[in-house]
Design a protein that fits this description.
Elements lengths: L1 H11 L4 H8 L3 H14 L10 H19 E8 L9 E2 L3 E7 L9 E6 L7 E2 L9 E2 L7 E3 L2 H7 L4 E6 L12 E9 L2
C-alpha cells in the first residue's frame, strides 16, 4: 500500500502520468484508478488486502447476518387454565429450540400437528411410537431440541405446544408464552 500511496502522491504533486507510469512500470490506467480511489477514500481505499483480524471480523459479521436472516421466533401462547397453545404456521422452517417463560414451566412440552391451520391437531409421535417431547425440568431457559425431536417435527407445518403429555396435560396457572426458535429449512 505504501508504494501505491507514494505513486499517487507523485501524481498529485504534478508529475506527468506517463513518466510515473514508465518509471514505476505500472500501467497509466491503473495509476489513474489509484488516484481516483485515493481522492475518494484516502489511503484506506488503496488497501488490496485487509489485515487478518479485520477480515475475520468481516466474515463473522456476514455469517451472523446470514444466520439472523434464517432464524425466526414463533410465539406460542398457552392461556391460563389451559394446557395447549394457540396454533402457529411454521411452514418452511424447522424448530430448533424452545425459550421457556419465566417463571419456568416444570411440565414437559409436547407437540400437536395438523394438516390445515384450522384442522384437527393430533399428538406428534416419533417412529418408535413414543410421544415427541421436550424435557423442561432444567434450569435452562433455552432448550435446544435434540436431533430426534427435530426429525420427528420435520415437515410439519401447523403446530401447537402442550404443557404435559397426551396422557397427562398440565393446565397453566397463568398465561405462558413459549418462544420456538425456528430455522429456515434447507
Amino acid at each position: 500500500m505504501q508504494r501505491k500511496t507514494e505513486l499517487v502522491l507523485r501524481l498529485l504533486r504534478g508529475e506527468a502520468l506517463d513518466a510515473v507510469s514508465r518509471e514505476s512500470q505500472v500501467p497509466a490506467h491503473e495509476l489513474e484508478s489509484w488516484k481516483r480511489v485515493f481522492l475518494e477514500q484516502g489511503t484506506r481505499g488503496l488497501k488490496t488486502r485487509t489485515d487478518p483480524e479485520e477480515r475475520d471480523l468481516t466474515l463473522a459479521r456476514a455469517k451472523i447476518g446470514e444466520l439472523m436472516m434464517r432464524l425466526e421466533l414463533a410465539e406460542h401462547l398457552i392461556h391460563a387454565g389451559r394446557a395447549i397453545s394457540e396454533a402457529r404456521d411454521v411452514g418452511g422452517f424447522d424448530p430448533v429450540a424452545l425459550q421457556l417463560p419465566n417463571p419456568a414451566m416444570t411440565a414437559n412440552v409436547t407437540f400437536l400437528a395438523a394438516e390445515k391451520f384450522n384442522g384437527t391437531y393430533l399428538p406428534v409421535y416419533g417412529p418408535t411410537g413414543v410421544e415427541t417431547k421436550v424435557t423442561t425440568g432444567t434450569t435452562a431457559k433455552i432448550i435446544t431440541l435434540t436431533p430426534t425431536t427435530i426429525g420427528d417435527l420435520d415437515g410439519l407445518r401447523y403446530l401447537k405446544l402442550r404443557s404435559g403429555t397426551e396422557a397427562s396435560p398440565v393446565n397453566q396457572a397463568g398465561d405462558r408464552i413459549i418462544q420456538m426458535l425456528v430455522r429456515q429449512g434447507a
